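Re: beginner question about structure tokens

> Can someone show what the tokenized structure looks like for a real chain? I only ever see the sequence side.

Sure, here's an example I had lying around. Input first:
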Amino acid sequence: MPISVWYRPRGCPASPSAPAFAGTEKKNDNFSEWYTQVVTRAELVDYSSVKGFIILREYGFSIWENIQSILDKKFKKDGTKNAYFPLLIPESLLNKESEHFKGFTPEVFWVTKTGDNDIENKLAIRPTSETIAYESYAKWIKSWRDLPLKLNFWNSVLRAEIKDTKPFIRTSEFLWQEGHTAHETKEEAEKQVNVMLKLYKDFVNEYLALPILTGKKSDKEKFVGADYTLTLEGIMPDGKALQMGTSHQLGQNFSKPFEISFLGKDEEQHFVWQTSWGVSWRLMGALIMIHGDDKGLILPPKIAPIQVVIIPIYYDEGKKNEIIKVIEKIKEQLDEKGVRSYVDSSEQHTPGWKFNQWEMKGVPIRVEIGPKDLDNNSLVVVKRNSRDKKNIAISDNPADSIIKELEVIQDELFESAKMKHSEMIFKSDEYNELCNRLTNDKGFIKSAWCGSRECEDKIKDETGVDIRLIEDELISSSCIVCGNDATNSVYFAKSY
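And the corresponding structure tokens:
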């Protein structure tokens, strides 16, 4: 396939009609504005005409598609199948589990009319799918032979967010997946909860190159209607914690009101044991915040829509055909090895402008090929994360060398993120010190806790900070608030 290229030397200015490339605020100077600029200038999102709702542009959606594709394979390997349920939920269904519904009431969008006619039983626009799904589960599950039932839904949900909206982090509509399982025994449900937490953690570490903490939510912070909630928590560069996924043990809190029961092997009727679990496009927000720099996005190769961008450079028509032939060969090699590559042959911008643009979009590797490179039988490989340059011989099958560099970048991003993560975890053994750290320091504060709601509320009231997670370990210490015997280590942090 012929490739058209724009011929202008490296560093040569663009034509007057070519738009200037805009940078961003400094990440360390104005983190919030930096983030907003990155997600828009990298063409991940645009803002809609309705506050709290964003448009996911094609480049942003392609990142979500990669996340979805990888997780979907993992879910199916665990025996989970995909399904889809309606967007609208009758109020009568939501009221079946009143405690659960009460937790979402302030955020629910309602449909009350069709045309000019009022709806007798108003309809909620899906804030989560438990109630609409479990009505069907009650019809489908009759015997122990129908279990386990493990379904996952890829959809969007709506929860009214009017203040402090931020793309991918807090919006009124967001994309996510939600898994809902039903089991014969409590032990099977317990196992499923832990399996999904580990699946999420492994994915976030391996593919997104993000370090996280895992543990249990306090009863105050658990999912409404759950026996308990397991969580994945990351710390962002501004020191705020971000909940990046959850796995809930629902017990029989939904199966009883929705009458999801089965005839057991003992010929007796039993209520099922249930779990639910999910992650959202918050993962993309964490990805941007942690890996990005003042040049824009930095995408881990395993998740990047484009892993390698190739930029041809030549001064005149004389070298055009030679450069095109080399590019076509390299592109073919990369395609054969499953590397997602793109040749930027656009003519309206200079090579320098393209360099900046693809840096903003976070493409892991940039390949440059110009006349001098061709004369030297080499090409220039530039790593996005470190901006290091390397010359690779064209005759030495450069695709293999590029793949090795992609692997190095993936590892480097994870190691760098882990180092920054560890630097934002502090310990505190004295209450005044804890309050001072929570007020002035950025990050997680690890302390001992007795497990009482009173102590949890006191810290919240005095500092505005939540318990983000409880470690699954017993400690020999005193509660940092009341001085009584502690039961667990907990992590406090401000949060999104």
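Each token stands for a local structural state, so reading them left to right follows the chain. The mean pLDDT is 91.
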